Amino acid sequence: MRLRAEVTNSNLLLRIVQSIDKLTKSAILKLTPDKLHIIVITDMDSGLQLWSDIVVEALFEDYQIESNFNNEIYLEFNIDNLQRALRSTQGGGALGVTMKLVKKLGGLPVLSLIIRSQSATGREITLCQDVPVRLLSAEQMDAIREPLVPEGQIHIMMPPLNNVRSIAERMKGMGDRVAVSANRNGEMNVRVANDLVDITTYFRGLETMSYDTTTQETSTDGGGGTGRLSSETFTAVVDMKNFLKFLQSHHVAPKNVMCCISEHHALIIYVYIGSAGYTGAAAMHDSSCGSLTYFIPVRQI
Amino acid sequence: MEAEVPAASLKTFYRALQCLGSIGEDIWIEARTDHLELIGKNASQSAYARIVFPAEFFDAYDSGESDNAVFRCRVQAKQLVGIFRSRTQAVEQCVLSIEQAAEPVHINSSATQGECRLVVRLAYKQRVCRTHRLFYEACETFHSTYDRRDCKGRWRVAAAHAASWVAHFARGSEEMTLQMTSSVVRVRSWTAGNVAQPDATRALHTELSVDPADFDMYHVPHPVELALALREFRAVLRYAERMAAPLSAFFDRPGWPLLLEVAAPPNPDARDHRQAPPTAEFVLATVADETTPAPSSNNATPASRAPTQILAVPDSIEPGSAPSPDASPYAHSRSSFAQWSPDNRSDSLLATPASARRANTATADSIAGSLPNSLGGPASQPVPESRVPTARAYRLLDMPRPYAPPGLTDTQLSDEHAAADELRNAPPGMVQTTLPFPTTAAQRPQGDMPVANADYSSDEELDATPPPPSKRMRALF
């Protein structure tokens, strides 16, 4: 089992880890020959899950990976440790960062980040941050699967995450659950309510994806039919905490964020990590360098 | 003693206090005729700090004593630091003085005049004046017996540089090692905890290699590796950074303490008060190596200047005391620390608390009375020693503990112990006194204000223990 790579885009990796920072203590890193996956599961049943993937070319150069399981490596690590280690890679004077999977004394595996940088006097300082990891076997990794969610009823591009985040921050004291709803007209509402207050934020002019699914029929018999009317609103009520956790992904400065509402089941949000800018239907195609997919289960009352 | 701190140097004074406050709980003040010393040490006696303000630093300085007499006292660090923490920009004049009671203070008199207090008076613009009166305790001070001239290795480095090494360490790191050779300096962080498990819950381990050419002065004749506690080292670094002064280090070998000095060179061009900046020296204990014959505490005698005794303590540990208990907390010593040895844990400079417990000496008295006099008590401690996993935790947790943990009211203590016992074994702060004036519950006629009474009804029970500060305030006003 071998892993070695030159981290060229440590800033992006740091921002990704910052997005997952407060979710939970540990996360799983799955490294394959062409992609890097970060999987965060906060709570098996009712918690938010994050499944992300990034092409390795966006982060590394000279990427070498070898293992017995199809050249894939599965690691469990502590998010705070990795974040601290990556933070050391920032700052002026960093010349190069190398990532290696090594066994430190005692046979303990660590993900070692070797950072060469320049001190104030110009001499080279070598900093080595060892993030302790736990190796997962292929069977353990198999047990972890993406959650099965039924097809969403509506896909809508979300407004800029910073706007939504500032609004959600204000709303968070009002209640412990938030209702996210959208319709085909490009309208999205974020609503929170408690005994005294009811706050709704209306976003207009958003772009929606229209699917050619078999369930889509033009309704001729007025309301009550099985057709999807363009003004029908689909709502998902999720935990406020999970919603805020997802909004932490603003750190990656995503180009597009697509929200998919699966009523009564989950809110699935695809955060596309920016590469070249593009909008609209092209966002459906995975042509960016990576994406973070949040599965937020609908709150069961 | 009276000292007037120039308004422009208040920040410097505050930084010194802050540094001492982050090392230990108390600050000892020693006022000599030509300088004022502030001394601090940490709870486990493994770090010592001394900051000297020459008389020229002050606008006016009078030690108030005759030539050879020295005024010594101890105050609580938190209180002193808190005074200077904020709002020092608008201060026009700051005077520290000692007020001593002209006559003995009677317990029943409610006058605040005539008490022994350290008075800090801050005069602001617009004739606003803030006066703080701090309780001080006259006591003995202590000094380090180590001399930097005895140290073979030394270096000096700019503070910002040193701080940048430690900045990379994870938050939970407890210890660090400095491995110094002639060609490279390696700084590593270590954390306590169960490192034997291949788990992701271990902490980040950081290792940094620095070129000795980065140092202002570097003289290390033979390679040496020192392991010391990170917390105190960070406090020293912070102080050096804030003072923008270089940090000098003097060391000899593992087990011998690391001497650090932060002294800004006087600037002849600046105004008067800057010509006498404070000099600070720190002594940090390091972990003894297995191979070096570091004297363990049972060999310490008053005569020999044992390296493990930083403090010039008149009494010493009885030679018969065992170095460490049988159920040593280090029976499972960490695999990462090849050189750490459970039995040679002499980095706690005096007797390790466990052996002090066994020795049952009055050592605590000599250490400026800071440890409670309860060495006999903890023999019945329910805390199992094998529970304690780490060095630092060991030093702090196994400190001679009072019989009653702080916070327990006397109603919860067991009845078998006489009141005198409780008094002796009480931790500092849990003072068994009666208030000098009757409590409000006794004062107020019974049956009045039933709602409010509910709050004070427990005053009777708590009579022997002072009520928590918020309640006490309510009782006074």
TrEMBL record, chain A:
Protein known as: Checkpoint protein hus1
Source species of the chain: Coemansia aciculifera
Taxonomic lineage of the native organism: Eukaryota, Fungi, Fungi incertae sedis, Zoopagomycota, Kickxellomycotina
From TrEMBL, chain B:
UniProt feature, compositional bias: Basic and acidic residues: 414-424
UniProt-annotated stretches for the region Disordered: 314-387, 403-477
Species whose genome carries this gene: Coemansia aciculifera
Entries under Pfam families matching the protein: Rad9
Protein name (record): DNA repair protein rad9
Lineage: Eukaryota, Fungi, Fungi incertae sedis, Zoopagomycota, Kickxellomycotina
GO terms classed as biological process: cellular response to ionizing radiation; DNA repair; DNA replication checkpoint signaling; mitotic intra-S DNA damage checkpoint signaling
Any one GO CC term of the record: checkpoint clamp complex
Origin: domain of life: Eukaryota
InterPro entries according to UniProt: DNA_clamp_sf, Rad9/Ddc1
Compositionally biased residues, Polar residues: 333-349, 431-443
SUPFAM superfamilies for this protein: DNA clamp
